[in-house]
User: Fold this.
Amino acid sequence: MHGNPAKLEKLSIPWHISANNIIFLIFECNRIFYLFMRKLFQTHILGCSAATPTSLRHTTAQLLQYHNKNFLLDCAEGAQKQLRRLRLPMMKIDHIFISHLHGDHYLGLPGLLFSYHLLGRDRKLHIYSPPGLQEIIELQFKASKHVPAYIIEFHEITEGKQIIYEDKHLSVETMEMWHRLPTFGYLFREKPALPNMSKEAIALYDIPVEQINNIKAGKDFTTPQGEVIPNEKLITPAPLPRSFAFCSDTGYTEQYLEQISGVDLLYHEATFLQDKAAIAREKTHCTTFEAATIAAKAQVKQLMLGHYSARYDDMALFEKEARSVFPNTLLAQEGMKIVVGEDS
Assistant:
């Protein structure tokens, strides 16, 4: 080691560091880093109105962030303006999920794709949707004689309960909604993490670094003296994996109830107050009571309502009605950021 021992002593840094102390330091840094990074599972509300924008609300779009990944959920008109206004990383979105082909859920997409070209995007973009969206976008490009400078890969969704995206930390699964057009929700599930090593156990049993991965994978540890130390004495459990379900648009149905069971945060459309239940059924939308009933039956941790009809101004009524059925309810509002699992 290079440096001045006297100077290091003044800084309260030990000059002679054992191998185990280095291991402690590495694992403690990794633990702190993991806990910090783990907080980044959050959704930003870009729009929460149904059918048409209002003077206060844009139509449906959310940006879901998980670690360094950015997922756009629906892309209504004005979505890219909202991304800019909220200073969100528009150019870092690599995956866009469209629930269905009613205009209030995708009409902002053509403009966003043109902007990506003009801004010099060169990374591949993945777009997931029910059939028909690729034809719409390609017609836009054809009419304007436009050839994007980046690759767009379309993924057609035709059924629920399908894993359509997966990496080492997260998976995305489709959920079939009940609506006038083929419509799908998206379920984002964090994968279970490995447990953390107990730094006290490392010191107590003088565990060599080459055994760490085996222990985190569930193996016991045998000391040089032949004593077998049970795995549960060597680790601290990892935090429980988190989940977020995006359900828009749909009439009342329980066909995806099992999929969303116990999720940390459920976003569910609630287009109407309960006194308009007949209209909701006719238009295959949900009321506040129905969305809250789904949340209660699925035993989710937290419910977020959205997709409010433009006829309403007093949004407190939505919250009041839903909380009478499911108390842990909040309302999606533009500019809001909701951390998944924070209020579970």
